[in-house]
């Protein structure tokens, strides 16, 4: 049970990928941890279970902390020598982001993506896990427990929701349907960029859970995302899920989005490469 990573040749990483045993074992761990630490607290949080981190809209709950702790313990046990970059651990120690640049396989974990929705008792939240090696996402797991959705992706082997293969939407010339950031997090500059997108004919929807936004793109329900931040726990799982479904990522600097950071923002992950170029052009970046 594990991964086999080949050499990097001609600028493209080649890998035999994640084996079926590890894919299934991680799925079991995610379901069990979410079932024990997250779902029982949905609509049952007390004031003492909720804390504020960097600002009034940046929340953390006991479910986030306990789920990340258990995922950290169990995922590293499944793959000896691996390490974890989790949202809550990085909040306490930003230096942990440096693990993404090392040689050890990295589990990138968002225990509750969409914490604000979780706190409000809404169903739009998910647990996100991605396995990254030397900056390349190899596999991902996206679990929205209340919606009963469990999506997986393995590099080179496609993306699936349950047993159904995912495909992004076919190209077209109609208005682009794009997920973008929640208004409470937007700066004046970002609001101006989004106004330009709308003026160019895009139809924008604000998301509270990046993982579910990516899932919509991978399912062909939306044409892409246009995002302004690069926290790896928000994007690693969805990036692989969408690209394995046929999509493509592009930053405003003209390069694919890198989960290791240093991207020129904003960026898009869209239904195909042509759409990604179209979105970046509308965002004011490299065409």
UniProtKB/TrEMBL annotation:
Requisite cofactors: Mg(2+)
Q: Which domain of life is it from?
A: Bacteria
> One Pfam family name from the record?
Inositol_P
Task: Identify the keywords attached in UniProt to this record, alphabetized.
Answer: Hydrolase, Magnesium, Metal-binding
* GO MF entries: inositol monophosphate 1-phosphatase activity; metal ion binding
Binding positions for Mg(2+)? 87, 110, 113, 234
InterPro entries in the record: Inositol_monoP_metal-BS, Inositol_monophosphatase-like
Any GO BP annotation? inositol metabolic process
State if RNA-binding is listed as a keyword: no
SUPFAM superfamilies linked? Carbohydrate phosphatase
Name recorded for this polypeptide: Fructose-1,6-bisphosphatase
Q: What is the lineage of its organism?
A: Bacteria, Bacillati, Actinomycetota, Actinomycetes, Kitasatosporales
């Amino acid at each position: 049970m594990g991964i086999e990573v080949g050499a990097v040749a001609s600028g493209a990483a080649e890998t035999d990928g994640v084996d079926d045993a590890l894919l299934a074992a991680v799925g079991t761990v995610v379901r069990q941890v979410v079932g024990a630490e997250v779902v029982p607290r949905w609509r049952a949080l007390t004031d003492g279970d909720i804390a504020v981190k960097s600002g009034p809209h940046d929340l953390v709950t006991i479910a986030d902390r306990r789920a990340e702790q258990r995922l950290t313990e169990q995922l590293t046990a499944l793959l000896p020598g691996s390490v974890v970059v989790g949202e809550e651990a990085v909040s306490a120690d930003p230096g942990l982001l440096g693990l993404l640049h090392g040689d050890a396989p990295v589990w990138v974990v968002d225990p509750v993506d969409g914490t604000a929705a979780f706190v409000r008792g809404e169903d739009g939240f998910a647990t996100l896990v991605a396995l990254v090696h030397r900056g390349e996402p190899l596999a991902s797991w996206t679990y929205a427990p209340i919606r009963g959705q469990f999506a997986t992706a393995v590099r080179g082997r496609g993306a699936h929701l349950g047993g159904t293969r995912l495909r992004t939407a076919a190209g077209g010339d109609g208005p682009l349907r794009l997920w973008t950031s929640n208004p409470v997090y937007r700066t004046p500059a970002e609001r101006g960029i989004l106004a330009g997108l709308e003026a160019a004919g895009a139809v924008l929807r604000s998301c509270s859970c990046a993982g579910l936004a990516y899932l919509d793109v991978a399912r062909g329900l939306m044409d892409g995302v246009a995002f302004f931040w690069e926290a790896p726990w928000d994007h690693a799982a969805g990036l692989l899920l969408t690209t394995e479904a046929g999509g493509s990522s592009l930053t405003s600097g003209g390069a694919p989005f890198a989960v290791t950071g240093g991207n020129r923002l904003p960026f898009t992950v869209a239904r195909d490469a042509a759409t990604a170029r179209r979105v970046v052009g509308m965002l004011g970046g490299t065409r």
